[in-house]
Amino acid sequence: MTPQARMLLWSAIRHIVLLAGALVMLTPFIWMVSTASKPQTEIFSSDLHLIPYHFALWDNLRIAFAKADLWRYLLNGLIVTTSIFGLQVLVALPAAYALAKLRFLGRDVLFALVVFCILIPPQATAIPVFLLLHKLGVLDSYAALVLPFTISVFGIFLMRQFFKTVPDDLIDAARMDGISEFGIVWRVMLPTAIPAVTAFGIFSVVAHWNDYFWPLIVLNSEHLQTPPLAVAHFRNNEAGTNYGPLMAAAMVIIAPLVIAFLFAQRRFIEGITLTGIK
Amino acid sequence: MSDAATALQGMAMAPRVPARVFAGFRRAGRSQAAYALAAPAFMLMLLMLIGPLAGVIALSFTDYQLGAPAFSWIGLSNYREMFADRVFWISLKNTLTYVAIVVPGAVALGLGVALLIQSGAGLKSWYRTVYFLPVMATLIAMAIVWEFMLHPQFGLVNGLLRAAGLQGHSWLQDRGTALYSLCVIGIWQATGFNMVLFLAGLVSIPKHLYDAAEIDGAEGAWSRFRLVTWPMLGPVTLFVVAISAIRSFQVFDTVQVLTKGGPSKSSEVLIYTMYTEGFEFFRSGYGAAVTVVFLAFVLLLTVLKSALGNREVHYA
């Protein structure tokens, strides 16, 4: 076989294997859209077909939105994820700046604590944090969803590493201009750190949009439900009778992140795999 | 950046007189500022992480139940009860089984996909996007899709099996297959994540090593992989294994929504046990003891990961 032929053969094998794998990866998504587009009678039939004979996606979406206040849940998701991210930045950036650029007694201890706290898995602190929120009387509220996550030790660590690379001259110059240390964080450090903050933002928003464990524990009221909780609730209510609208609801819940991901894949992949680097 | 530019300009124009006398004074002020800047983060860390961590360990030695007016220290009773409980051992065994299946599966597939993607030029970013999609999509929503795909009567999986002349199965309702079905979902979800980590590792292998291997007579894809890629990827692989193991230990979402640990405890896992004890029966003390066991496993893996993560890569 000539080298060219071998290259061609290898390339063909590569594509065949990867396409087969890609099909497996995509099957749940394809089947979700397909089922969401079928009327009840086609879903409950043993005749398997991908393209519905009767296109019922709009009907199923209408039923899903009528049975569950999906707009409300999407809004809840937006409120919770943006509040968490906003507060995380507000808390983490000043601390990261102090750890990276200021000298003070106890700095190394504080940094060691940050590194230690990164090791704590979120489920491990669930019971005491739940009891704390119970004592504060804020269970079953937005505060219960947001408060425990206002501190992101990983965010502090990440931003501190980034700030380390910012030249001291820049900070000294700002001080000469009479900018306070607090002002330096927001007017000098933040603008230089936009790429790192963006990556962290994607990491944070995706994690909390998709989180099921914590909302499940602290929420009771239906109107506060976040998207994952809402879709699980929808499923429990319909208990295997209404798959079309259920799949339509699942589509709506995953749509915002998936669409954002398709538009900015590189940034998303970078942001989500940040956990791998920590 | 414009702020920085003006700041630099300001420095150039500032008179170079600022007296040395004020330097010490200013430094003291700066250290006060540092405390003010770090204080909110420090307080929240104590309140939401370190305090609760100490709390969960302390709680595990009490008989506290949510809403009870009082509690007492009962020493190791929770642990004694736990170690005598059949459900705890089933739960631990299932968790370890889940980890033992999902980790090799997702790591091997992630590596395979990464190698295949990297070995050619066509459709690279398209493949990467597709394989990463399950990582992005809300797991709960996709778990519900999987549930319907695994539906005994109208599911896609059994439909395809029947079309191929094979017997269908009640995947999630059968105690013999429930846990393994969850493992498949776990692998489906984790493969793309591992793939991206491997891709990053592959890109960082210096190209001249392949050239050198070729000069030394390493021909063909397999010897290039054996002599260069695999040794260079070693640290990354150990790292990916540790991360996958930590993530698999935390399995909860699919269990809670699809099987509730059943049928007859066949898919009960540690975090689910903790959830039912701590948040359904409100036995905070006992739930805390289960958490401590989980924590021990995860911390062990994390320490292992950090040790590996810090290890230098040798290019010799």
TrEMBL record, chain A:
One of its GO terms (biological process) is transmembrane transport. It is a multi-pass membrane protein. It is found in: Cell membrane. GO terms for cellular component: plasma membrane. The chain crosses the membrane at residues 12-31, 73-97, 109-130, 142-163, 184-209, 243-264. The keyword Transport applies. The keyword Signal does not apply. Residues 74-264 form the ABC transmembrane type-1 domain. Keywords: Cell membrane, Membrane, Transmembrane, Transmembrane helix, Transport. Belongs to the binding-protein-dependent transport system permease family. This is Sugar ABC transporter permease. It comes from Bradyrhizobium retamae.
